[in-house]
From TrEMBL:
It comes from Gossypium darwinii. GO terms for molecular function: calcium ion binding; carbohydrate binding; unfolded protein binding. The lineage of its organism: Eukaryota, Viridiplantae, Streptophyta, Embryophyta, Tracheophyta. Disulfide bonds join C109-C144. Residues 271-282, 516-525 have a biased composition (Acidic residues). InterPro entries: Calret/calnex (IPR001580), Calret/calnex_CS (IPR018124), Calreticulin/calnexin_P_dom_sf (IPR009033), ConA-like_dom_sf (IPR013320). This is Calnexin homolog. GO terms for biological process: ERAD pathway; protein folding. It is found in: Endoplasmic reticulum membrane. Residues 227-241 have a biased composition (Basic and acidic residues). Residues 214-255, 267-317, 493-540 are annotated as: Disordered. Pfam families: Calreticulin.
């Protein structure tokens, strides 16, 4: 038994030694790695440019003893750069770019991407690092408004024109929408394959030389539209035209209004012409501290006229409007096929003077890593920035540096969501009950107040009945409204069927365009939120 125990101990020690050796080997295999366990001062250089006032901080990741590079202020621009000991050649073998980013306070508008910069001979200095500093690759999350993507941008020189062009990966993955640590990985392979991973999972694959994967394509089109060719003045590209032989019918009245007064409508009995719908509140009194000179002439607040509650209506009665059967709108000649139609004009294609071929992208070497961002949120933490030539090395770093933190954060998030779920439900129900109590105090529901209060009390005692109670109270309210409309002295509003306007889409008439009056009516509806304004009693 003692021998077995010694053997097990030796196996454990051997395994632990192997793990340590693997980790050490991974560190040796990394071209660049920064865990930010040590302060960044002296290693990373903060830009002195005036626009970049954001303060960087060496800070622990929330809930961990692990340190990172922290964005501390909102609504600021930030710029910081780290020079590499040796430039990294991206054309030789596989290259892996990887780093962690955590939005500890969420991210609504801002970037958290890295820029992999060209050598300083390209025209930049660390202390002057800004958004114009020349980079070879830009990679990482960016969120603002409709933008939500993990960028991958290759900036490559066109050997024909000499200009640098940004080539954006098409359909990049979306950014995780939480406050957890996430690791972003870009794998550049010698066969021109590009893979984007989030948390070790492949989210996007593409090929650098495919026109379907990069915009604009890294290899330009062989031909381009001739920029000097102009469309001939006599080129007619209208498919259909107004019929030149069409004549407006003699009985077409463009001035007829869309609506007219309903001359058959009669004023309901009991209508109080001399009463206003609102009156001064007889119980209101002028405040003692009211100063007419400073506050103006005091006026009593208005209340609904109680006489109108039982009457069929108050104020000046006006006949309701109905659709005018004679309305046709503006006449337009019908459309016919254009006999002179020549098709859609486009310039002829000519050879592209900037066309070139290559068997792999021309990657400029990477000489530095920079973070140059503008963000509306603070609390963005960068950590474990890695450049390696082996994707297995990157995987090992993910497993040893990112994954343990993520598991802890995920469990904490799950527990908080479960706790918040019950709290949010209780808060929602409280809000619902508060609104329902206000409904119960509405005057025209006074007859049903006790019934509504009874429903609310049952729901408060048994929260799972909230939805059912809501339905019951809605039924009560609808019943009250129905009774209010169809009971009492009121006579039903006079309604008559109206004639449908004449069809204006025949061969003699319209081009299919909306009449001017109808367009005005739609504009009026749009201004009021798409619905017709509420009618007052005098309009019924």
């Amino acid at each position: 038994m003692i021998m077995m125990g010694h053997f097990a101990l030796l196996v454990f020690l051997a395994f632990a030694s192997m793990q340590l050796l693997c980790i050490a080997a991974d560190h040796d295999a990394a071209i660049f790695y920064d865990s930010f366990e040590e302060p960044f001062n002296g290693r990373w250089i903060v830009s002195d440019k005036d626009d970049y006032k954001g303060i960087w901080e060496h800070s622990k990741s929330e809930g961990h003893d692990d340190y990172g590079l922290l964005v501390t202020e909102k609504a600021r621009k930030y710029a910081i750069v780290k020079e590499l000991e040796e430039p990294v050649n991206l054309r030789d073998g596989t290259t892996v770019l990887q780093y962690e980013a955590r939005f500890q306070n969420g991210l609504e508008c801002g970037g958290a991407y890295l820029k992999y910069l060209r050598p300083q001979e390209a025209g930049w200095k660390p202390k002057e690092f800004d958004n114009g500093s020349p980079y070879s690759i830009m990679f990482g999350p960016d969120i603002c408004g409709l933008t939500n993507k993990v960028h991958f941008i290759l900036k490559q020189k066109n050997p024909k024109s000499g200009e640098y062009v940004e080539h954006h990966l098409i359909d990049p993955p979306r950014v995780p929408s939480d406050k957890l640590s996430h690791v972003y990985t870009a794998i550049l392979k010698p066969d021109n394959e590009i893979s984007i991973l989030i948390d070790g999972e492949v989210k996007k694959k593409g090929n650098f030389l495919s026109a379907q994967d990069f915009d604009p394509p890294i290899i330009p089109a062989k031909t381009i539209p001739d920029p000097n060719e102009k469309k001939p003045e006599d080129w007619d590209d209208r498919v259909r035209i107004p019929d030149p032989n069409a004549v407006k019918p003699d009985d077409w009245d463009e001035n007829a209004p869309m609506e007219i007064e309903d001359m058959e409508a009669v004023k309901p009995e009991g209508w109080l012409d001399d009463e206003s719908e609102e009156i001064d509140d007889p119980e209101a009194t002028k405040p003692e501290d009211w100063d007419d000179e400073e506050d103006g002439v005091w006026e009593a607040p208005k209340i609904d006229n109680p006489k109108c509650q039982t009457a069929s209506g108050c104020g000046e009665w006006k006949r309701p409007m109905k659709r005018n059967p004679a309305f046709k709108g503006i006449w337009n000649p019908p459309l016919v096929d254009n006999p002179n139609y020549k098709g859609i004009w486009k310039p002829r294609d000519i050879p592209n003077p900037n066309y070139f071929e290559l068997d792999k992208p021309y990657f400029d070497p990477i000489a530095a890593i920079g973070i140059e961002i503008w963000t509306m949120q603070e609390g963005i933490l960068f950590d474990n920035i890695l450049i390696a030539k082996d994707e297995n090395v990157a995987e090992s770093y993910r497993d040893t540096t990112w994954k343990p933190k993520f598991v802890v954060e995920k469990e904490k998030q799950k527990a908080e969501e479960e706790a918040a779920g019950s709290d949010d439900l209780g808060g929602f129900q409280k809000t619902v009950f508060d609104v329902l109590y206000k409904f119960a105090d509405i005057p025209f529901l006074s007859k049903y107040k006790l019934q509504i209060l009874d429903f609310i009390e049952k729901a408060e005692k048994q929260p799972n009945l909230t939805i059912g109670v809501l339905v019951s109270i809605v039924v009560v309210i609808l019943t009250a409204i129905f009774m209010l409309i169809f009971s009492g002295k009121k006579q039903p509003r006079v309604e008559k069927k109206t004639e449908v306007a004449a069809d204006t889409s025949n061969d003699q008439g319209s081009s299919g365009e909306k009449p001017a009056e109808e367009e005005k009516e739609e504009e009026k509806e749009n201004e009021t939120g798409g619905a017709a304004p509420r009618q007052r009693r005098r309009d019924t």
